[in-house]
Amino acid sequence: MIEVSNLDAGYNQSKVIHDLSLKVAPREILAIVGRNGMGKTTLLKTLMGILPHKAGTIRVGAKDVSRLETHRRVSEGLAFVPQGRMIFPNLTVLENMMTAVKGRLEESELNEIYSLFPILRDMKHRKGGNLSGGQQQQLAIARALLTKPRVLILDEPTEGIQPSIIKEIAKVLREIRQLRDLTIIVTEQVLSFVLDACDRLMVIERGRIIHEDMRERVDAERVKQLLAV
Fold this sequence. Notes:
The chain has helices at about 40-50, 70-75, 95-100, 105-115, 120, 135-145, 165-180, 190-195, 220-229; strands at about 1-10, 15-25, 30-35, 55-60, 65, 80, 150-155, 185-190, 200-205, 210-215. With about 230 residues, it is α/β, with parallel strands linked by helices. The chain has one domain (about 1-229): P-loop containing nucleotide triphosphate hydrolases (Rossmann fold, 3-Layer(aba) Sandwich). A hairpin with a 2-residue loop joins strand 1 and strand 2 (about 15-25). The mean pLDDT is about 95.
């Protein structure tokens, strides 16, 4: 569903991502883990076109999106939930979700979102800035889903969220994958969340993938050592 080949990316003259290649299959949940400053966010922003790439290609299905602007990549099926959620604090929950659609937000679409995130129905008239971190994360994912993506990309979704909600988000990602036939890429530092949610894990260090394994074969102690270096 998404294929990255020999990607170089970074900021101005500074290269952060080095000759990185990966493939993510349809309906797969891939987790990319790594310490702060290792290139996770840079990679995701490059996939979305928020940062320009310096070399390599990014394909969604059969389409090369490497040169497309961000809004065109969204049209091709990419959706991004950034670190920190980036919801509109002065808009209500419902108004936040409406920013993701052109025209009318269909009741059937809303009901599907509310079935995944019941708390959003209860709080649909509450301002986004008055939600807890976990509720804001659910809102940010819901807003992304309303763009009808083929690939959902999340940057550190557990940041600032209490453990009980972290487990709930892992469960919801698996449900979304089943319901929408979605491919999901998520960056993380919380290994327990990754092992709950993902099918495959990659470790990124200094802009390069240094280790990968299927979830059922992951050596958690080894990954913890890699993250602690």
